[in-house]
Amino acid sequence: MIIQQGDRVQFVGIVLSGGIQIIKEDIEGNINILSHLGINDIFAETFAYADIYECPITVQATENCEIMFIDCKRIIKKCNNACVFHWNLIENMLSMIARKNIMLNQKMEILSKRTTREKLLAFFNTQVQMNHSKKFSIPYNREGLAFYLCVDRSALSRELSNMQDEGLLKFNKNEFEIL
User: Locate the Cyclic nucleotide-binding domain: which residues (predicted)?
Assistant: First the structure.
């Protein structure tokens, strides 16, 4: 566990190696995977900069990983030397935050769909655009994909099988091809 829901966060995390998941668990214990992050992705910046006392999410490793933590106040404070490095750091941080905002908007678009099939089609469309290919792999198993899409795992598996039977896609585990 990297961050536990309820922790106070005063740092920005940067994934140097491996992968992590951002998870939100509701009061009934239902899990929603908000995102899967990999090398060079940042996390916890929203909660660190907003100075939220209790972090509403959990961050956990999905594999062996290395994380660098940076005090958020040191990033935004003006450097006494006005060094180029500091300006580059701020510029890169803003760029990462903007890309993350785009990713969250894509997820919102996917989750706004009403049916499991519509959510899958929107998710696959996003994957095709991101990978510039109709063949891609995803970082989730069936249960993880169901958590990410906020759908029942058995309904997800049934819909994937139906879509394959209809000739819309082929898949094996987490490898997909849109036909």
Answer: 1-71
Q: How many CB atoms lie within 10 A of CB 147?
A: 21
For 173, the token pair is 């585990």
Give ∠ CA 150-25-130 in degrees, rounded to 5: 45
Over the range 13-33, which residues count as b (16 or more CB within 10 Å of their CB) and which as e? bbbeeebbbbbeeeeeeebeb
Write down the pLDDT at residue 135: 95
Architecture of the CATH domain 1-99: Sandwich (2.60)
14 within 8 A of 67, measured Cβ to Cβ? yes
What contacts 153, CB < 8 A, 6 or more positions away?
A: 142, 143, 146
Mean pLDDT (whole number) for 64-82: 82
User: Residue 47 and residue 64: Cα distance in Å, rounded?
Assistant: 24
CATH 1.10.10.10 region(s) of the chain?
112-179
With beta carbons less than 8 A apart as the criterion, state whether 4 and 44 touch: no
3-state secondary structure of 75: helix
Mean pLDDT for all residues in the chain: 90
**Section 97-104 average pLDDT:** 86
Span 112-179: which CATH code? 1.10.10.10
Structure tokens at 166: 């209809």
